[in-house]
Amino acid sequence: MIHDLKTWPEHFRDVRAGIKTAELRLNDRNYQPGDVLVLREYDPEAGEYTGEVETRAVTHVLTGEQWLQPGVVMLSMSYGNTSKQFLEYVVNAFRIPAELLER
């Protein structure tokens, strides 16, 4: 599963730099290991996306009210192998004909 997520600039920069390897999120998407996170930088002051994007693979999902608030998960993420799933996402999102990608 691919999840397109709004990410504020200070968090986006740390993900891009490799400093931030975990993400706290509401578990409103049933996150699972192997999912792909498409992290899109969002500027809350301008109220728009900046156009910067990073992709990461979910490697672990921490759940449980013993550690987190109800409904919240901590997603561990890495560069992982996101290329195939992300390519499928781009093809579907932008309706790119598959034959253009076979070159």
From TrEMBL:
It holds the Pfam family DUF3850. InterPro entries: DUF3850, PUA-like_sf. Residues 2-76 form the DUF3850 domain. Coiled coil: none annotated. This is RNA-binding protein.
